[in-house]
Design a protein that fits this description.
single chain; 356 residues; alpha/beta; 10 strands; globular
């Protein structure tokens, strides 16, 4: 098993996708490489794609939304536990390093979204932005695709819920504040730990925990409803931070809170074990044993009823801790549903005005 960390990256390997017929296995030939021959650090490459549609729909009973938009495929934040990693296999890439270094940007997303929302049969429902990959990952600072999508949603007065690990969400704070004035937006900041050292290896290119708390504070001061997601909760690794995250988020201005247990579908299970061996070798067996206890003896159970929370004594304890901490902090005192009453289709843009 590969156990050598790569600075600035979450995954420590780049094994081929599960659809590949052939697999390459590196080995040590005992020839020490010169510095000139050392493998270069993996660089980030961005590919642009023309999207035919941008609104994805789901019928998962454990999700609060039916529609979502993901401006990017792949995510440079490099969170080793990211449940979206296996989707990169459909692009003939590895869910490992490829997921965080070979990114796809939907640069026509705003224009396609405008067409979809303008269709007479479209019925407005909440859209989740960033349900799969982070809409404010580092390349958003340059490409601003998420910003263009939000501009269209504001134009149509369409409700949107944003989930991100990036403090960069505040760069759109003026637009978000205008939407909040119509009860059209909520921002959820995901925080896995307040320990900077742990966060740096778990989520190497995401904002620091302190910067995320500052983002919650800035959003709240701008009148934007903001929540915190304690995710993922990893037993014996970061679960001890749950209460501290909830109280810190409340102090910063968060009103709502959620938590999600670590999920290890498909290739993520092996990637996460590699990460443990590289960064937390003394806790590797203990963490995986607790995960199996909460997943019916397996590394993962995809059952809709339990995949977000798990089962068993430890899972029940997490649920009790979360509920008690929220009650003590004053979180989840009454969630407001975002509104669709203001939805409107702007007049069609025409090159020439009507004569009459």
């Amino acid at each position: 098993m590969q156990t050598t960390p790569i600075k600035g990256r979450g995954s420590v390997s780049n094994k081929v996708s599960r659809f590949e017929a052939l697999e390459r296995e590196p080995f040590d030939d005992e020839w020490a490489p010169d510095d000139q021959d050392a493998a270069p650090k993996p660089a980030t490459t961005v590919f642009f794609e023309e999207a035919r549609s941008v609104i994805s729909r789901n019928q998962s009973p454990d999700l609060y939304f039916e529609q979502s938009i993901n401006p990017y495929r792949g995510c440079e934040h490099g969170c080793v536990y990211c449940y979206a990693r296996p989707t990169h296999a459909y692009l003939n890439h590895s869910p490992g390093l490829d997921f965080e270094t070979k990114l796809y940007a939907k640069d026509n997303a705003a224009s396609v979204l405008r067409k979809e929302l303008s269709h007479p049969s479209y019925v407005p429902r909440l859209i989740a932005l960033g349900a799969n990959t982070d809409p404010y990952q580092p390349i958003e600072r340059r490409l601003r695709i998420t910003a263009s999508i939000l501009a269209v949603l504001e134009e149509f007065s369409h409700p949107v819920a944003i989930t991100t690990k990036s403090a960069s969400v505040t760069q759109d704070i003026e637009l978000l504040a205008r939407m909040a004035g119509k009860n059209l937006v909520q921002v959820c900041i995901s925080v896995s730990s307040l320990d900077r050292n742990l966060a740096r290896t778990l989520e190497p290119r995401a904002s620091t925990p302190g910067a995320r708390m500052d983002a919650i504070r800035a959003l709240d001061q701008a009148g934007i409803p903001t929540g915190v997601i304690v995710a993922p909760v990893i037993p014996a690794l970061n679960d001890c931070d749950m209460e501290k995250i909830l109280f810190s988020a409340k102090e910063a201005g968060a009103t709502d809170a959620w938590y999600v247990l670590l999920r290890l579908p498909l290739e993520i299970s092996e990637l996460f074990r590699e990460w443990l061996a590289a960064h937390q070798p003394l806790k590797e067996k203990h963490v995986m044993n607790l995960i199996r206890q909460m997943r019916g003896g397996k590394a993962y159970d995809s059952d809709f009823k339990t995949r977000m929370r798990g089962t068993g004594v430890f899972a029940d304890l997490l649920e009790q801790r979360f509920q008690k901490a929220c009650a003590k902090a004053g979180l989840n005192q009454g969630r407001k549903r975002l509104s669709t009453e203001f939805f409107r289709r702007p007049p069609e843009r025409k090159a020439q005005l009507n004569l009459f």
